[in-house]
């Protein structure tokens, strides 16, 4: 007796297809299959490459640009911080009356 596909299973399969999971997994597995030298740990390969499947080069470029911008901002703020500390040091070393003692 042949039984048709389980409705819950079929619904879950459609859900995975609609969410892009099937395509992503297929893409990663094809990439693994096409590797000249198979990695020692196939599961680790899949984990590493699964996260990269949905990321476009445009996303990567935007993230790289953000890193560059943040590093520049950090350097600028560090310089500004150094200048302000030097000014503060000068003001703290000046007597409160602002003049010379007689």
Structural class: mainly alpha
Give the low-confidence spans.
none
Strand % is under 5%
Q: What is the general shape?
A: elongated
Averaging pLDDT over every residue, what do you get?
86
Count every helix, treating DSSP H or I runs of 4 or more residues as helices.
4
What is the rounded Rg?
Answer: 30 Å
Helix proportion range: over 70%
Ends: how far apart? 114 Å
**N to C succession of SSEs:** HHHH
Count every beta strand, where a strand is a DSSP E run of 2 or more residues. Answer: 0
Main beta-sheet strand count, sense and barrel state: none
Protein name: MYC binding protein
Coiled coil: 53-94
Keywords: Coiled coil, Nucleus
GO molecular function, one term: transcription coactivator activity
Structure description:
- This protein is mostly helical and 102 residues long.
- Helix content is 75%, strand content 0%.
- The protein contains four helices and no strands.
- Helix 2 (21-34) crosses helix 3 (42-53).
- The chain is elongated and about 95 Å long.
- The model has no long low-confidence stretch (mean pLDDT 86).
- Its main location: nucleus.
């Amino acid at each position: 007796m042949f039984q048709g596909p389980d409705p819950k299973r079929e619904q879950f399969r459609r859900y995975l297809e609609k969410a892009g999971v099937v395509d992503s997994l297929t893409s990663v597995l094809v990439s693994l299959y096409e590797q000249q030298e198979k990695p020692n740990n196939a599961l680790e390969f899949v984990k590493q490459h699964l996260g990269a499947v949905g990321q476009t080069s445009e996303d990567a470029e935007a993230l790289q640009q953000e890193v560059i911008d943040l590093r520049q901002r950090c350097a600028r703020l560090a310089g500004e911080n150094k200048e302000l500390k030097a000014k503060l040091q000068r003001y703290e070393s000046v007597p409160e009356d602002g003049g010379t003692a007689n």
